[in-house]
């Protein structure tokens, strides 16, 4: 299948899932359809040792197409829209992969873009990153696991403040509170992501993330 909003390739058994709709890599209905289709292929690919999520252009993602998202919530479908359920299932598939998943973040990472990044097991970023879950400004809340995954990283109080205000965090703030794991030069994002995967892929278990990070970045050694 040929994708329009994402690119997919493998290099030495590492998968590269690239958001490919610059400049904002906005996530519209076509993106979510293509993403769900690709995740099924990734899940069934037993040769992969790791997955890197990255983006074309300047930004990681500005998030969902707001007009499409609001139209879904304004429909007559009772309860949680099927569209959100399907997308949440795809994001959970990503989170539950048994291989290391590394998100390479840069500049803008908002809304569903951040929810996608939070499903990765490791998050590294360039120094100019801005993170936000701005959904409350549109009268809705994050619907793709953003609240749950943010809570796992930073706890209840900070999650409530982050989600309800819709305020953004820069890279140092995100690193300090635990939303990202490492800040690196933007030109080193891919190199560091590959190093993480090659280091932890053997007998990988995501519950040992803290141990992996301690060993990877011991004494702040460059990768």
Can you offer a commentary on this structure?
The model has no long low-confidence stretch (mean pLDDT 92). The chain has helices at residues 29-44, 66-73, 82-95, 111-119, 146-154, 156-165, 171-177, 189-200, 209-216, and strands at 6-11, 14-19, 50-55, 101-105, 108-110, 122-125, 130-132, 169-170, 182-183. The protein has a 6-stranded mixed β-sheet with strand order 1-2-3-4-6-9, sandwiched between helices. Strands 5-7-8 form a 3-stranded mixed β-sheet. The protein has one domain: 2-enoyl-CoA Hydratase, Chain A, domain 1, CATH 3.90.226. The protein is of the alpha/beta class and 223 residues long. A hairpin with a 2-residue loop joins strand 1 and strand 2. The chain is globular. It starts with 5 loop residues before the first strand and ends in a 7-residue tail after the last helix.
The run of helices and strands is: EEHEHHEEHEEHHEHEHH
Average predicted local confidence, pLDDT: 92
Q: Care to count the β-strands?
A: 9
Query: Helical percent range?
Result: 40-55%
Please give the radius of gyration in angstroms. Answer: 17 Å
Q: Which CATH class?
A: Alpha Beta
CATH superfamily, by name, is 2-enoyl-CoA Hydratase, Chain A, domain 1
| Biggest sheet details | 6 strands, mixed
Count every helix, treating DSSP H or I runs of 4 or more residues as helices: 9
Instruction: Name the beta content range.
Output: 15-25%
- Count of the domains: 1
Q: Distance N terminus to C terminus?
A: 35 Å
């Amino acid at each position: 299948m040929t994708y329009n909003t994402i690119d997919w390739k493998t290099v030495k058994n590492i998968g590269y899932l690239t958001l490919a709709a610059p400049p904002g890599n906005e996530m519209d209905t076509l993106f979510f359809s293509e993403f769900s289709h690709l995740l099924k292929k990734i899940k069934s690919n037993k040769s992969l040792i790791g997955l890197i999520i990255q983006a074309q252009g300047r930004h990681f993602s500005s998030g969902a197409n707001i007009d499409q998202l609001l139209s879904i919530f304004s429909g007559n479908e009772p309860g949680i829209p099927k569209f959100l359920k399907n997308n949440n299932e795809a994001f959970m598939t990503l989170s539950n992969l048994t291989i290391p998943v590394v998100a390479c973040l840069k500049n803008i990472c908002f809304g569903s873009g951040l929810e996608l990044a939070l499903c990765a097991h490791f998050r590294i970023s360039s120094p100019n990153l801005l993170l936000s879950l701005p959904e409350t400004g549109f009268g809705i809340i994050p619907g793709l696991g953003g609240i749950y995954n943010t809570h796992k990283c930073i706890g209840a109080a900070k999650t409530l403040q982050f989600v309800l205000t819709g305020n953004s965090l820069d890279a140092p703030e995100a690193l300090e509170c635990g939303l990202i794991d490492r800040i690196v030069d933007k030109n080193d994002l891919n190199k560091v992501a590959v190093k993480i995967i090659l280091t932890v892929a053997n007998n990988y278990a995501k519950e040992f993330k803290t141990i992996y990070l301690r060993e990877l970045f011991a004494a702040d050694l460059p990768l």
